[in-house]
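Support request, please re-run this one:
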Amino acid sequence: MAQNTVKAKKKVAKADAPVVTAVKAEVSAAAPVAGSSRRTMVGTVVSDKMQKTIVVKVDRRVRHDLYKKYVTKSRRYKAHDEKNTAKLGDLVVVVESRPLSRDKRWALQSVVRRAGQTLEVNV
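Re-run finished. Output below.
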């Protein structure tokens, strides 16, 4: 009998609580939110064979602990490309996003340089 009174009190407490409704804004995976702390990385597209997905290779230079020589380490990230704009060899910026699949946690933000484009240098 005591359990029924406790449940009744909980129901009353829930009924007395103010109802708050939240409006959920639709934001695409690649759209950065103003003032957010999403990480961004710059890398090269090494694969664009999947639908709406690219594989981006991000290089970083670290100093070897023993030999004190700078070594280039790289890591590959799968990123969401909604419109399939990035092609093989492009230099792109990817931004952190919510998990979109088992491996995809990044989204394409912009294409910095196309694969065929080279910087013109006055020689």
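The two ends are 92 Å apart (CA to CA). Residues 9 and 15 are 10 Å apart (CA to CA).
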